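Example for tutorial group B:
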């Protein structure tokens, strides 16, 4: 009667083993699902917004579905993960088109690599000010425009920065991260002097060529001093607003100074000669009047002589008498 009890014991042991196996299978799965819900919605939403913003030859709507990361693995095209976080986003040569928002990657703070090389993205570059782990930033051969954001020079672990073949303008920020070993901004529209930081000066000429307005080492184009700004007359301001202060212009040295001295001399000479000329004209005028008056009085005196006196004078003409003569007659 004791022999049939053995199979029942074997069955119960098998049941226990089955329950243990199911427990080990279900518990990690439930734990993983809770982790997805707790840690990845923000990153997933950022990628979904990026998917809706850009166009591509690959259908991101069909391959970017579900959670982007399952622990250290990803089912999404171009995505790498570590500890449920997106650490790499690589979409190269898939004809991506559209513009990136300034905060497109704000919530992907664990990014270590971002590569959109060889696409058709346009607009200004996004912001990477809160990406302490970013090491590889590859945005070459697109249509990006505008300046290089200054916060690119503040990415602490940046190792590679490739932005050649775009339409970037403005000046180059003073990159000086010791971690930066690969740098290329060639064939853009950058201008101004290349910053003299040790890191930038260590890169070859090929990292900067193709920018017509760029100058300074390591390029061979020397930077010329900027020409003086020509002041432009501003339109009159309204009476209620005070006008800008008149800029002080220091006196120039050289020939202009001698011209000023001669000008002062001429002014002094003119101020002296003008009164003298007036006085000379005045004396000449009144002297002429005086002579006319004297001559008239002489004529009147000469016309009142008696005929006998006139005859005597006429006979004695040319033989003046003592005590008489033309000077005495003129005085009388």
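The residue assignment follows.
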């Amino acid at each position: 009667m004791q022999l049939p009890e053995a199979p029942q014991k074997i069955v119960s042991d098998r049941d226990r083993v089955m329950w243990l196996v199911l427990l080990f299978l279900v518990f990690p799965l439930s734990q993983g699902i809770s982790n997805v819900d707790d840690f990845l919605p923000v990153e997933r939403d950022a990628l979904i917004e990026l998917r809706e913003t850009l166009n591509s030859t690959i259908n991101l709507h069909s391959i970017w579905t579900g959670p982007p990361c399952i622990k250290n693995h990803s089912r999404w095209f171009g995505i790498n993960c570590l500890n449920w976080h997106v650490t790499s986003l690589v979409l190269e040569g898939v004809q991506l088109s559209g513009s990136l928002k300034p905060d497109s990657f704000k919530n992907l703070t664990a990014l270590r690599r971002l590569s959109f090389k060889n696409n058709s993205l346009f607009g200004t570059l996004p912001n990477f000010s809160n990406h302490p782990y970013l090491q590889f930033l590859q945005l070459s051969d697109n249509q990006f425009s505008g300046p290089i954001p200054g916060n690119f020079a503040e990415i602490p672990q940046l190792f590679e920065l490739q932005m050649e073949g775009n339409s970037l303008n403005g000046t180059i920020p003073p990159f000086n991260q010791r971690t930066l070993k690969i740098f290329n901004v060639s064939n853009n529209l950058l201008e101004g002097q290349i910053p003299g930081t040790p890191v930038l000066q260590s890169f070859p000429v090929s990292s900067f060529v193709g920018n017509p307005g760029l100058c300074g080492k390591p390029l061979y184009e020397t930077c010329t001093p900027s020409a003086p700004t020509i002041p432009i007359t501003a339109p009159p301001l309204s009476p209620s607003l005070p006008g800008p202060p008149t800029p002080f212009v220091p006196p120039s040295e050289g020939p202009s100074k001698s011209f000023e001295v001669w000008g002062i001399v001429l002014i002094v000479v003119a101020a002296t000669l003008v009164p003298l000329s007036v006085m000379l004209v005045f004396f000449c005028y009144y002297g002429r009047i005086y002579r006319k008056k004297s001559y008239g009085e002489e004529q009147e005196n000469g016309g009142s002589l008696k005929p006998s006196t006139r005859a005597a004078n006429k006979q004695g003409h040319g033989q003046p008498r003592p005590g008489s003569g033309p000077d005495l007659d003129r005085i009388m």
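Residues 26-36, 227-255, 303-332 have pLDDT under 50 and may be disordered. Compare this with the pattern of hydrophobic and polar residues in the output above.
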